[in-house]
Amino acid sequence: MGSLKDVTIVIPARLHEHAVGRTEASFRAIRIERADPALVTPEMARDVRGIAAMTRIDAAFIDALPNLEIIGSFGVGYDQVDAAYAGKKGVMVTNTPDVLTEEVADTALGLLINTLRELPRAEAWLREGRWVKEGPYPLTRSTLRGRHAGIFGLGRIGLAIARRLEALGMTISYHNRRAVPDVTYAYYPTLVGLAEAVDTLISVAPGGTATEKAVNAEILKALGPDGVFVNVGRGSTVDEPALIKALADGTIRAAGLDVFADEPRVPQALIDLPNACLLPHVGSASVHTRQAMADLVVDNLAAWFGEGRALTPVVETAHVGRS
Predict the structure, then answer these.
(1) CB proximity list for 312: less than 8 A, separation 6 or greater
(2) I need a labelling partner for 163 at 20 to 30 A (CA). Which of 40, 215, 308, 321 fits?
(3) Got the DSSP string for 252-291?
(4) Any idea what the Cα angle at residue 264 is, between residues 60 and 34, rounded to 5°?
(5) Is residue 133 within a helix (H) or strand (E), and if so which, with residue range?
(6) What percent of the chain has pLDDT over 70?
(7) CATH number among 3.40.50.300, 1.20.59.10, 3.40.50.720, 3.65.10.10, domain 101-278
(8) Dihedrals φ, ψ of 68, to 5°?
(9) Domain span(s) for CATH 3.40.50.720 in the chain
(10) Could you give the CA distance from residue 91 to residue 61 in angstroms, rounded to a whole number?
(11) Domain 4-97+287-317 superfamily per CATH
């Protein structure tokens, strides 16, 4: 397979520094400001065989690198990469599943509890001196007790969340494009059917055209006035104006969000809502987990060029082999 030091990898835009360091140590690495065909020099077009990235990689950038073999994408979600086009061009795309599953599931559980029990607001009550001046924090209307959770996207992370919720005594149902084999949770073939059946809807759905604004006014109305919505998947899966309206007028009780439609820009109307618990996309953001994700990006590149295989190919490029 030759020496990895003979292989040129381009790193467009920002990437986890551990991934950058390992890529630079193992390969001939080139960093550019963004994934823009205009920045591709004739030498890059000739030499680049791999991409390590956590930014958008579109068809035009793929076409600008005629000798490209693999795109190592940082993150379990890879909707920022045109994987379908890459697959048609014979370019492998990898992501970083599994290593972040438990971290994101922990975040989802914490976000759900914070949303129901208003723990961040209770802490602010203490820090602002209101406990002394005004007395105990008001009793919360919501609790985990007796709740029925619906998971939108029962993949690796969805299953890890379900295990945690089961341990808390919650009933679990789910909606996917198709039922998951060997799972005992109740399956709903439509998202609206799931929302009607539960009072707690947790979205772990991936981004993309198939799920864009899937959680809309109809879904939120079906969830109902005691309903709580939590999203640790992708912000694009939610109709944000519809969610803001549902929170403001009591269509649902509360929402906990770690992801947004136009990150890092969060609508001020959402920030102003007292029944919205908001986090700045920190689902997998621990030093431990982000380093493991960075390692998997580089391990995929090393396995591809060293052994002729990818460790974690995405479904759209699972058929791609190394010639």
Answers:
(1) 94, 95, 96, 97, 98, 296, 300
(2) 215
(3) SSEEEES--TBTTB--HHHHT-TTEEE--S-TT-SHHHHH
(4) 30
(5) helix 130-134
(6) 99
(7) 3.40.50.720
(8) -65, 135
(9) 4-97+287-317, 101-278
(10) 12
(11) NAD(P)-binding Rossmann-like Domain (3.40.50.720)
Which residue's structure tokens are 């295990």? 163
pLDDT digits 0-9 by tens, 269-314: 999 999 999 999 999 999 999 999 999 999 999 999 999 999 999 9
CA dihedral sign of residues 163, 171, 106, 264? positive
Sheet of strand 200-203: strand arrangement: 186-187, 171-175, 148-152, 200-203, 228-231, 254-257, 276-278
What is the set of active-site residues? 234, 263, 281
Predicted pLDDT at 1: 52
pLDDT value for 292: 98
